[in-house]
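Changelog-linked ticket: manganese (II) ion example.
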Amino acid sequence: MPSDFIFSAPEAPAVAIAGHDQVFPVRRIFCVGRNYAAHAAEMGNEVDREAPFYFTKSAHALCPSGATIAYPPGTRDCHHEMEFVVAIGQPAFRMSEAEAPAAIWGFGCGIDLTRRDLQGAAKEKRRPWDLGKDFENAAVLAPLSPVKDFGQIGAQEIRLEQNGRTVQRAVLSDMVWSVPEIIAHLSGYYHLLPGDLIYTGTPAGVGPVQSGDVLTGTVDGLTPVELTIGDAE
Ligand code: MN
């Protein structure tokens, strides 16, 4: 690899690790669509029981927990989507569900910020979702915790508070596609590698954010994710 870049190479995206000085370098961000039946229903969709589906965000869309961000440009309907995030720590290619847990480094609380109006327009015209999903600060992520500190995925509650009011609430076992199922499926299409993240979908209760909002998202056993929405630029 050449080292004489014509301008400074972009900083490697990374996310904090709870209670540690070291950070987790982020490679790719995969996101699962419609993974809670109640959310699929509120969006006017049915869950596809055939297979999960995905979209991606650039690793440069990461936003650290605790940030205040400008209300995103180009939208009048930016939504919060609280999500349980899986951090891959071992290579995974064509993994079985039984093997999949070995590929996981840990977990985190994330928010998939979505320009819902742009996503909706794209859906209508059968165009890609990039403008609605992949934009600066759209992948908010709290410090990660290793698997051993979290334990089995199951009855943990996932919740989002908007200005202190609970707007999203479910348990992780409500996911249509379990984390091992997602890894087994996704690893049939990609060589998953350490640093890859999977946002596993959002429960019902998504809705618009406004300037001045404070979002706090929790999953039992993980460090909460926090975000403040500032004025538009
Ligand atoms: Mn989402």
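Closing comment: Example verified and attached. Residues 141 and 225 are 6 Å apart (CA to CA). Residues 31, 81, 83, 112, 199, 201-202 surround manganese (II) ion (CB under 6 Å).
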